[in-house]
Design brief:
This protein is α+β, with helices and mostly antiparallel strands and 302 residues long. The protein is 15% helix and 32% strand. The chain has a four-stranded antiparallel sheet with strand order 1-2-3-4, with no helix packed on it. The protein is globular.
Length: 302
């Protein structure tokens, strides 16, 4: 892989010994390459289906196409992050609109179906699907949708104390492995939504449970596992969550990446900065209201 290209190939899915499907973020496309011949055998360009008015208005990051998965029937499931959609592409006929999950809304809208999602995993019929489990990153939750009567229905959600999750895998034992990026951790929750494993990792992107197969392979749908979402009372708004609305996403994300090299989170930085600033203001006011003033030597005002 050329060094100048690799950072922009956001994901790749193994097809067989010679072929991979690649999510090429830099060129807003998905392609299938034969690694024996170095020939691109098939490709789909985002502008075949989406207008330039959709997604990000930056030419450098129009779609932020960040995930591809080849399904058992040969279709490709693709995550269009900046369009807030997961789409299904038939290699012959193109995007199947009837299967699209999500819709693009105004940038400031909340309670979207999806909001700049990452790493959707497809759960097939034999495991209780068709279903999709996906990290709904900007809405700080992991969510699952089930195909019901030719449309998508939300069937499960976990949002307790998550901060910008970017991956979620349904494991064969019914547990869910979650990459909680800004909280700098990977967690595993059981069927009752209790955290049974937690590992601190600087700004993780994706995690796999070794020995269970790739992503959500062999994992069952929430309906098949009879999973229920945690009650709303379990959800707490973090310090960062209270100030996120005042900061553009690009600023929050940039600070998070910079802090990943240091042993504290953005949430911790906000909390510490608030404490330090409050202490300085309190100290200054206490001095101002006291009977003391600065002079050499220090004297009492009285």
């Amino acid at each position: 892989i050329p060094a100048e290209t690799a950072p922009q190939w956001h994901d790749a899915d193994y097809i067989n010994n010679d072929k991979f499907a690649v999510a090429d973020m830099s060129r807003d496309r998905v392609f299938i390459v034969n690694t024996s011949t170095d020939i691109i055998e098939w490709q789909w360009q985002a502008d075949q289906h989406f207008t330039l008015e959709s997604g990000d208005d930056s030419a450098q990051d129009w779609t932020h196409l960040n995930d591809v998965e080849v399904l058992p029937d040969g279709r490709l499931m693709v995550s269009m992050r900046n369009q807030d959609r997961v789409i299904f592409i038939n290699q012959t006929t193109g995007v199947d609109e009837s299967w699209t999950l999500g819709e693009e809304e105004e940038a400031g809208d909340r309670n979207k179906i999806l909001y700049e999602q990452h790493n959707p995993d497809y759960i097939p019929d034999e495991d209780g699907g068709p279903a999709i489990i996906v990290a709904d990153s900007e809405q700080n939750r992991v969510v699952e949708f089930q195909r019901v009567n030719n449309s998508w229905k939300e069937t499960w959600e976990y949002n307790a104390n998550l901060d910008w999750p970017r991956d979620a895998d349904r494991l064969p034992n019914g547990h869910t492995l979650i990459t909680d990026s800004r909280n700098r951790r990977v967690i595993e929750i059981d069927e009752s939504n209790s955290v049974i494993y937690e590992k601190e990792i600087p700004l993780p992107y994706e995690a796999e449970r070794v020995g269970t197969g790739p992503e959500s392979k062999n994992g069952k749908s929430a309906i098949r596992e009879n999973l229920s979402s945690p009650p709303e009372s379990n959800t707490k708004i973090s310090t960062l969550g209270r100030v996120e609305s005042l900061m553009p996403d690009v600023v929050v994300n940039t600070i998070s990446f910079l802090l990943s090299k240091y042993p504290f989170t953005l949430n911790g930085l906000v909390t510490s900065s608030t404490f330090i600033l409050t202490s300085l203001i309190w100290g200054a006011l206490e001095w101002r209201w006291s009977d003391w003033y600065v002079q050499r030597p220090i004297k009492n005002r009285n």
